[in-house]
């Protein structure tokens, strides 16, 4: 994920939630497979914590998402 993020955003712009625009103006969203798993958690409280954490990110941080998933409120 880091490889694609760095290559595609070089000369472009980084945005929220894993979105970036490359140097040619093409938009991409770099999404790790684990994000889909975490957002699909049957516990709606856990999946909501993951969503809220992701909305605060530019490049998606897998470790931070995993911590948000298991954090106690």
What brief labels describe this structure?
73 residues; mainly alpha; 2,3-Dihydroxybiphenyl 1,2-Dioxygenase, domain 1; three-stranded antiparallel sheet; 3 strands; elongated; ubiquinone; 3-demethylubiquinone-9 3-methyltransferase; transferase
Describe the structure in your own words.
This protein has one domain: 2,3-Dihydroxybiphenyl 1,2-Dioxygenase, domain 1. It contains four helices and three strands. The protein has helices at 2-9, 33-39, 44-55, 62-70; strands spanning 13-14, 19-21, 27-29. α3 (44-55) runs antiparallel to α4 (62-70). It is elongated. The chain starts with a helix and ends with a helix. This is 3-demethylubiquinone-9 3-methyltransferase. GO terms for molecular function: methyltransferase activity. Keywords: Methyltransferase, Transferase, Ubiquinone.
Give a brief outline of the structure.
The chain has helices at residues 2-9, 33-39, 44-55, 62-70; strands at 13-14, 19-21, 27-29. It is mainly alpha-helical and 73 residues long. Strand 2 (19-21) and strand 3 form a beta hairpin.
